[in-house]
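Provenance and format

Records in this collection were gathered into a single text stream. Each protein contributes a sequence line and a token line. The two records reproduced below are adjacent in the stream.
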Amino acid sequence: MKFTNGYWLAKDEYLINSPLEAYDAQTIAADESDYVSETLEVSASYQRINSRSDMLDVGNSTISIFSPAEDIIGINLKHFDQDDHNPLYELTTESVTPLIEQTDEYVSFQSGQLTARIKIHDRFNLDFLYRGQRITGSEYQAQGSIDDLSNQVLGRVMHPNTVTGAQAMAPSGTIQRADHYMREQLSLLPGTKVYGFGESFGAFVKNGQSIDIINRDGGTGSDQSYKSIPFYLAAKTGISKDEQTGLYYGVFVNESQPTSFEVASEVVDRVSFSTLGEQLEYYVIAGESPKAVIGKYNRLTGGSALPPEWTFGLWLSTSFTTDYSEKTVMKFIDGMFERDIPLSVFHFDCFWMKGFEWSNFEWDKAQFPDPEGLIQRLHDRGLKVCVWINPYVSQKSPLFKVGKAHNYFIKRQDGNVWQWDLWQPGNAIVDFTNPEAVAWYQGLLKRLLDMGVDCFKTDFGERIPMHDAVYYNGNNPAGEHNFYTHRYNEAVFELLKAEKGADDAVVFARSATVGGQQYPVHWGGDNLSQFHSMADSLRGGLSLMSSGFTFWSHDIGGFEENASPAIYKRWTQFGLLSSHSRYHGNIEYRVPWLFDEEAVEVTRKFAKLKQNLMPYIYEEAKVSVSAGIPLMRPMYMEFPDDPNCADLDRQYMFGSDILVAPIMSETGDVDYYLPEGHWEHVLDQRQVTVDHRGQWLNENYDYLSLPVWRRINK
């Protein structure tokens, strides 16, 4: 969200007050409810204090500095002390004893090797230093306590168009409180690149972009995201392994309501972030490498869970609007086995339930007369069974009356159930802030588990009301919007843990928020059956992997439209060299023999390749979970000393040793980059040694191969 008109002026509708001088600092001892040992509390005035008269008619910001873990410093900016009634992310904290120092010139707060330092009785400035070196900071007038005056209808508000902290004035007795925002701007050192923000499908390096953290169901080719994460990783990469030239830190904005980021856009050498309300909280996380930063953020937000080994095999879906029944399902499974294609999971998409009644959690007996028997037959073939669910209940579903009668749904302010006709007629939305609604929903799913279902595809969770909405817990609906997916996936995952055991629990989720990596696996949503959408999907996945998530998947062949044989075969290679692999589509079955005979050969070869790589993949998965880093890694994360890797978004590391460059063209041509090292091609066993300058390659591959290299003797 942009508040300024150029570098110096505010837009006409905004009044921006900034802390101009910090005049007081005190150490606050922790009480039993605090998760930090001590807090440094700094008071900063919206004007410079030269005399006692400057202490009148002026606002303050209270800046609280604390540490939830070593090398992580939290900052809470507060204007008025008011509760925003937003849900709070659950953070995993450690015992930290900070070093707090106060001199005549500044106060400082140190956690591990990270220090926050604020000038006292001088032009306001907040710096963050890691190992004594400045990595970022909030410069003079960067912070903002901002009034949106455009909605004021009483009185005539007069304010100068400046950002120097002057106060708005209105005739006596006619003051109406304006909408209020809090803003921070953190500086970027020259050469710093910014990554992350969840599954963001735009340019991989986020510099120059405006990003709103709000979950939306917008596909994989727009500026909307199913998984919006208010976290970014900043990397200023050096070129020498012998010197400490790399600077890496992350910034996590601890706000569940929609938050807006301007990434080197509104102010081109800063990342600005803002949210509606009277306070704003963020954390700076420092480390010696991108992996170290991501790992610290991952642990702070709950850590990752390791999916069971069977989930890494090939998943086959009924697809969405295709016609399917028990006969169709068995025909496809038999076809895979007859063609010697390894299969791990069969997924039943939406129409396992009757149309217009989603969700009723009852099998459509016309198509599946014996679901228990069918599930047992699939188990007998060595397959696991996944079924599609969502958190919505159609008015036509028998469950609607139950949910309405027991207050299990989100309501409108007039007391009625919040409904619309999007997706299903008269859809209501389960209110997971109501513990009784959670228990009811879990009970409906338990009946399916008792039938033999092994896991659930937790679809949707993004189109959740923020306006004219009332939640059971009374929270701000804007805060519950993004947080909804956390409650939803947590309810399903915890049920699976209770019924299947912690080692066998897995969901296949589309939406996520902060901490969602605790409930794997996530897939990329509704992509197109086109090469550019394949590239979009990978960019989104690598951005999610830069945001604290460990595992990720995507619809092989694309979801929308009919896939060409070329798309199907190239996407099969990519999908079976991803952490999780699933064939799924909208209007078209995704079994290989419906494309051409070579597609069968490609699927068999790469399904068996992944099967043969499983000892490596699963060991790397364990290491990734322990370290809090992704299994599919952006190149910059594995090679932070190589500046050529900083922008690469069409190749990735699969674990620490295997490099994959998916082919995204009809011709089989591919450009990719090999960093320094000794490499062996996984498929044709040729070897190459690359020196410190790296090597760019332009090659052509048939459908039975692609660039997939393994580091040797590293």
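Adjacent record:
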Amino acid sequence: MTRLHPRPLLSRETWVDLDGDWEFRFDDDDAGLDDGWWRAGPEAVPFDRTIRVPFPPESELSGVHEDGHAILWYRRTADLAPAGPGDRVLLHVTAVDHHADVWVNGVHVGAHDGGHVGFALDITHALGDGAAQTVVVRAVDDPHDLEQPRGKQDWQEEPHVIWYRRTSGLWRGVWAESVPATRLDGLRWTPGAQPGAVTLDATVTGARLSPDRELEVVFRLDGEVLARSRHAVTGDRVTLPFLLSDARFDTEPDRLLWGPDRPTLIDVELTLWRGEQRVDTARSYVGLRTVAVEDGRFLLNGRPCVLRLVLEQAYWPRSHLAAPDDDAIRREVELVKALGFTGIRMHQTVADPRFLHWCDRLGVLVWADAPAAYRFTARALEATTREWMQVVARDASHPSIVAWVAFNESWGVPDVAADASQQNAVRGITGLLTALDPSRPVVGNDGWEWVAGDVVGVHDYTHDGAVLRARYGTRDAVAATLAHERPGGRRLMLDADAAAGLPVVLSEFGGIGFHTSAGDWEGYGAVTDEEAFLARLRDLVGAVHDSTGLAGFCWTQLTDTLQETNGLLDEHRRPKADIELIRQIIAGEEH
């Protein structure tokens, strides 16, 4: 199987996959630093186990399948020689939870904080003679730290209520690439409101720039060149506005726009030149689409778009938050489409870039969460802010992402209803996300206790369609519900005046338990057979489809996840009823 590039938005042809078997060791006494576990060569300390990266040690597929350890050490020897004279070698760690230190051949090459977005290190200075180089990673992930953004990873020994088994250490791919010393090091695409308009922000790293440095950008659609141009590079950052002029924008504008029904992607080749010498070449892609909110509606490409989302926990029974393989990632996106949804809400975890690639490629809208901490402290707020900045920097170019979700159900801000500091934290991170990315709406605190943001998200797990119709059937009913109802036991609005005119999305509802067993959490209620399952699904989804007061919905949830047996699919991604019948209900074709 040919693996998808781990960074699809900025890829080069040659990269080295470092996943597979690594030496491994727990460090419960925190002795490894003092005892030199980071050393390589003849001084290397024996490691007593083997782990299969990128699977976390708590998972079955890792080969370790053991929980409760805070400090983890990894070691692997690999060929990491530069491909050519003057090239640099970059080591990429796609995700490691939570703090990581990295050594190469006994040289400390860098560290990183944040468990859900990766990092890259230039390790060239640490490379020894010959091809074989030893990489050591020390990961620290305190299982009980509630100030650390952890999402739905449980802090108790066994999963309880709606929290799951942990995903520690290296849990997404490790890879390396040999790159020119002067190179493209990052990019960001921002589509504009005018048809064909898009802005590229690119960073260039390396030697001191000379006046003859140029960046060539070539846009292609189905192999046909739409535009080609060269631009002078005068600094380490280049901002280039493009207007892709083509008659099809006038005659067939939808053909070139990105959306769920037609996810058009334009391929881009970027080449850095020094005179007529090719310095670096990379590939990317862009989807031309705009997102906005207006008069209670969610707009995609300037038109009202009623959201049909499903809650995506991105958890697999044998590998936890790490996807089992590339095929599983693509299949997950295909199942979302097959079930009749137009999108997902990525819930309390950060999507794999390959997953976002398939959402881009197949046309699945994404509301992007980031994992929550569960205490409100300066340290928790700092970690949450840092992780959000990393998420936006990495993922903002994906056309599939149409909203950022700053907080969920007041997690991390538990006293937000009464505490001005916590309210300011929600406003602050919501404002930060808007500042980092003004092109997308931000959901400030999804579920209840709305303080700030561009969308009001409401969580309501009533299992009576008549109640949903009464609460959300019309705009007036929605306004009354926001003002007076407490479907989750909490006030829905803390600042109703500031939310006037914003779209309201029923952003969690449903959650029908089916195929349950002893020990399953029954917070959502349950049915006992397929007929009852479909009848309740039809009742609840039909009520929301009938609403004229909502801008969309998000069904809970896509798959069973441990004790939460409320998925449309079981944990192995098998539908709990005829998938075509489910699709018709979700898509509203019965109305």
